[in-house]
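Supplementary Methods. Inverse-folding protocol.

Structures were first reduced to a discrete structure-token string of length 200. This string, shown here, constituted the complete conditioning input.
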């Protein structure tokens, strides 16, 4: 009888300990950091996908609308800056600069789309239409990926700043809250997806 009671006591203690471990952040804090890293990797992957479309888009536009040299140069320069940017997720200024560079490319592409509307031959080009579709799809993926980054950062920051998991972070992990994406109003205003209207 005593053996049975001891086993039940041990089992109860193990269950309680397991619940304590999962509830105190030993597992959830690293998982939340991993989720941030994965979300960031996805958004940078989508930004790179967009950057990879730019050279072909510029060449197709240049072939028909060579007079739009200034707009094309703005796109090329914005792409160069965006692809050179490295971001430190723990540094608010680094995040702001990264977002600003991506926003500048979005803005330059948007202007290119508007200019392209003045060239019926360009709009009729199958290559141009295909690139437009790919660009629109990529912009949508960027929007989704950015939302995931924002949600992952919010969850991670909650894990490391809200009791009881904040205690574990303070004593074991020592993570600092990450700057939130989209918190800078100027960057948020700039970073609008290029509007591609197929109805015109």
């Amino acid at each position: 009888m005593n053996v049975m009671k001891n086993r039940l006591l041990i089992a109860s203690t193990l269950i309680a300990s397991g619940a304590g471990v999962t509830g105190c952040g030993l597992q959830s804090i690293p998982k939340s950091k991993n989720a941030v890293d994965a979300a960031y990797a996805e958004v940078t992957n989508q930004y790179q996908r967009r950057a990879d479309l730019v050279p072909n888009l510029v060449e197709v536009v240049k072939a028909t609308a060579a007079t739009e040299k200034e707009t094309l140069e703005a796109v090329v320069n914005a792409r160069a800056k965006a692809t050179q940017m490295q971001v430190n997720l723990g540094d608010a200024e680094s995040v702001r600069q990264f977002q600003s560079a991506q926003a500048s490319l979005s803005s330059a592409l948007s202007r290119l789309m508007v200019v392209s509307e003045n060239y019926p031959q360009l709009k009729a080009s199958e290559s141009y239409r295909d690139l437009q579709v790919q660009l629109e799809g990529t912009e949508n993926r960027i929007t989704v990926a950015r939302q995931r980054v924002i949600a992952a950062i919010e969850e991670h920051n909650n894990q490391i700043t809200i009791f009881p998991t904040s205690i574990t972070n303070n004593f074991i992990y020592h993570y600092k809250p990450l700057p939130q994406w989209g918190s800078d109003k100027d960057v948020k205003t700039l970073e609008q997806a290029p509007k591609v209207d197929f109805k015109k």
